Amino acid sequence: MNTATEVTAAPRRRLLLIEPSALFRRTVVLVARELDLADIDEASSHEVAREALARQPYDGLLLDLGDGLEGMQVLQQLRHGHTRSPGGTPVAVMAATCDAATGALLREQGVQRILLKPFKVRTLLEVVATLSVATP
Fold it and tell me: InterPro entries from the xrefs (predicted)?
């Protein structure tokens, strides 16, 4: 008697990448897919990210902080439960600069990683791999 045991693969994590550079977004998404790291949705702006977060839950965010307060507002909406994702969803922040006060605020908001621009795509893919196994 031949009995086969089915192995059910764990569902891939769904991440949201919020980044203004289309080239950078596409590169990260394509390489992450090729390496089978995660399914990544793209948002070109914080406004588009808020719409995506209102539509469906995500297992992690890769958030460009931006120049103003919009990136921080997206993070606070997530943390306060105003999205479809759990408040404790893992977040990595990308920023051009980060002073001590901003870094402290991001840590208070539970940000797992702060990446200072410029950084290599490889570095972000390492973060994608980490967020893909993290649990909120």
Answer: CheY-like_superfamily, Sig_transdc_resp-reg_receiver
